[in-house]
Amino acid sequence: MHAVAILMLSTNLAAGTGTPRPAYIPPVQHFAFLATLAVHPSFTTRTYDVEKQAAADDALRYLRQVIKLVGPRNGGLDQAFRFVEAKKPAASRNKRAQTRNTADLDPEGEGFNADSIRSPFATTDSLWYKADDFWSVVGWAFNCSVVYPHRWRRWKVWLEMMLDVLEVEMESRASVGTIADSMFARYLAPVGGRGRDIKRRLMRAILADGKQTSLAEFHEVWRDETKGPKKERDEDAVRQGKKRKLDLGNSEFGDYGDDSSDEDSTAASDRRSRPTTAKPSRQMLQDADSDGGATANNRDVENSNGVDSFGGTSSLQLRARLLALLVCLCSHSPATFLDTEDLFDIFTEFTRPLPLVVFQHFVCPPRPYLDADAQSSMLQMLFRPLLAGSGAPVYDENTLTQDVFEENFAPFAAGGSGASDNAKVSIMVEGLLRLLWRHGGLVGRHSLREAVEQGVKARRERVAWDGRRRAGVKALEEEQAGMVMEGSVQRMMSLLELVR
After folding, report:
1. Residues 45-49, mean pLDDT to the nearest whole number
2. Phi-psi region of 16 (alpha: psi -120 to 50; beta: other; left: phi over 0)
3. pLDDT at site 103
4. Between the N and C ends of the chain, which has fewer C-beta atoms within 10 Å?
5. What is the C-alpha to C-alpha distance for residues 274 and 132, in angstroms, rounded to an integer?
6. b/e for 378-404, b at 16 or more Cβ within 10 A?
7. Alpha-carbon distance 399 to 405, whole Å?
8. What is the pLDDT confidence band of residue 471, given thresholds at 50, 70 and 90?
């Protein structure tokens, strides 16, 4: 009945659109339930049942309607999308007793009474119960983008929906000066005010890369989540088993001794194996097995330096949106988590070692995801370790003018002779140049071209061939770095022509 129920909710929501009539929405626990259906493997990647798959799609579509027509705060999504502290029910053979023990999952009693929805997907098998917190889900979703593409297709649309909610809700809070009370601030609360390593966990989640260390920290939400659908013959066997008759004389015991239902057995199994502290299985740390549908193994991931090593363009765009939310909150309410300088310090620690093309996506993206001040601060913070030892003057003022650009950044190469580091410096010089151009801060004078050309020459000389023959991965990396650097040079020269 999921499809019928969601259709009814959608009809009530749309009725009276464009008139002063109020929109009719359900209690908040329904939104939490629907957000679980939208991504739960039993309704998406672990079933052939078309009705279940349609229910997951309908749930996601309805939540998007609520975001658009009502808004996260008016709809109560900020109350619905709360990760609750796990309350494991006491062992019991009585299904009703188990239901009573797990009916209320809200430790603060703020209106989230899941007893009104009699389904494990609203209680012990709910996303908000199974996951430790928002960042564990983020890390797992981005791990899926690298090694479990069949699950990523579902986590992607769920994460897009969540980011829409967080962005709209934060914007509404910022307009009235209450950004510290936003959903996103609440998701940061478990790590705010604690040590630096706890805060670094956020960056590890945002930059989860599907390698073993990342999978060990950010593992599956539901048990056997990465497996594929059960074989149709297995589902037929289950259905036939439920129809067995009781015939004691012929040792036919019917359903006695079987689990009461697939959902009950799954929920009980998951309660026993809830992955809060358990180590990932060997299967998770390797490729997905034949049921998992993964298309790349970890060795390929470790050797890859392209955008696929971080899940492709769609994954990188969502990671950038999360970073933008962090920057927005830190700039408006530094006491909630960190000030922007400390945030960019952590960002620099994690961004500098990234593969070149991934680094380029975050530092000099085709479409900026940060405002001008934040982009400038981030680039200048990234410059400091790369220019160390290059002879560039130390600049800590954190303001950007054309004079500052010409004197402190444009003319210099990286401190080392690595092709990748010098390509990264070229990308950042280009980023600052484009930033000044977009905001009217460039004047077409001779000193500007001279500074840019001096830097181009210095970087080319720093990575010039030294007579050593290279082969294999190292040779490919240097070739790629050279191509990226020359592409950056061409774009900067074109921009200088426009300025002139």
Report:
1. 93
2. left
3. 42
4. N
5. 10
6. bbbbbbeebbeebebeeeeeeebebeb
7. 10
8. low
